[in-house]
Amino acid sequence: MYYNEETIIYYNGAFVKAIEANGNVYDQTLHYGYGVFEGIRAYDTANGVRIFKAQEHFDRMRFSCEAIGIPYPYSNAELIDISYEVLQRNNLSDAYLRPLVTCPPNMSLTKGRGAQLLIAAWEWGAYLGEKLLRLKTSSYRRISPKNFIVEAKVSGHYVNSILATQEAKDLGYDEALLLDMEGFIAEGPGANIFIEKDQTLYTPQLGSILPGITRATVIEISKELGIPVIEKQIRLEEVYNADSVFLCGTAAEIIGVESLDDQTFQKPWSESIGAVIKHAYKNLVLEKDYKNVHAH
Ligand code: PMP
C-alpha cells in the first residue's frame, strides 16, 4: 500500500497526514490530466540515505511544467530538502518518491493559475518485478510529438501508458512495447528500451520518447565500461533479431526481457550486456564502485 493512517506527505506548504490532505474537486489537474509528476528513488547506500539523481529529476519537473504552462516557483534545493524530510518523517530509506505538481480550480482550457506541490514516498519493490519480462507490441502507438510534448512527464500522457499496459496484461504478457507514429520502436509504458546486437547497445533516439534519467545513466555506465551505444530509429525486426533486450526506468531499474511477441533472443540473459549494466547500475545507486565489474 502506498499509505496508511500514519503516512506523512508534503502538500501545499506543510507536512500533513496523507489521509487528512484535501484536494479541491475543481482542480484543473483532476479534470484534464493537466499536471506534472516525477518518479525518483532513494537508496540506503554505504553513505546513508541518498536520493539518486535528484537534481536531474527536479530539472525535468521544471522543464515539464514550463513546457505546458504550469507555474513553477520552486528551487531544486528546496525540493530536495523537502524530499529528504518526507523520507525521514516516514522512516524510509529504500523508497520511491512521487512529486506531483497540480493546478488549482480552473475549468477553462487555459494555462495553470498556480501550482500546488505534493511529495509522497513509499516503499516500492522493483516495479516490473525481477523475472525476465515477456513483452507484447502494443496496438496503441506512443503519443505523438505532433500532439503532445512527449519529453514532458505530464499526468494525462499516462492514459496512453495505462491502455498499453492493460492490453498487454489482458493478453497474458508482462508489459507492452509501444511503437512511435512512424512505426519505429519507442518505449515501454513506463520505461525506456535498449537492445544488444554484436557487442553494441542500441536505443531509440530522442524525439518520441521520455528522455529517461535511467536511460542517460545506462549510456553513462556504458561509456565507463567501454560498451558502444548507438541512439537511432529501431525497427521491430531488429528487436526480434537482437542478442538481448532490457527495459530501464527509475521504478523498474534495469530489467531483462525474455521475449517480444513470443520471440526470444540469441543470448541467455546471464551472458548479456544488460546483465552487466544491471549489476553496475545497482552498484552506482548504492554508491559503490561500479567500474571493472562483471555480471557474475
Ligand atoms: N518512459 C516513460 C514513459 C516513463 O514513464 C518512464 C518513467 N519515468 C521512463 C521512460 C523512464 O524514465 P526514468 O528513467 O527517468 O525514470
Automatic annotation (TrEMBL):
It catalyses: L-valine + 2-oxoglutarate = 3-methyl-2-oxobutanoate + L-glutamate; L-leucine + 2-oxoglutarate = 4-methyl-2-oxopentanoate + L-glutamate; L-isoleucine + 2-oxoglutarate = (S)-3-methyl-2-oxopentanoate + L-glutamate. Pathway: Amino-acid biosynthesis; L-valine biosynthesis; L-valine from pyruvate: step 4/4; Amino-acid biosynthesis; L-isoleucine biosynthesis; L-isoleucine from 2-oxobutanoate: step 4/4; Amino-acid biosynthesis; L-leucine biosynthesis; L-leucine from 3-methyl-2-oxobutanoate: step 4/4. Its cofactor is pyridoxal 5'-phosphate. InterPro entries: Aminotrans_IV, Aminotransferase-like, B_amino_transI, BCAT-like_C, BCAT-like_N, Class-IV_PLP-Dep_Aminotrnsfr. It holds the Pfam family Aminotran_4. Keywords: Amino-acid biosynthesis, Aminotransferase, Branched-chain amino acid biosynthesis, Pyridoxal phosphate, Transferase. This is Branched-chain-amino-acid aminotransferase. The lineage of its organism: Bacteria, Pseudomonadati, Bacteroidota, Chitinophagia, Chitinophagales. The gene is ilvE.
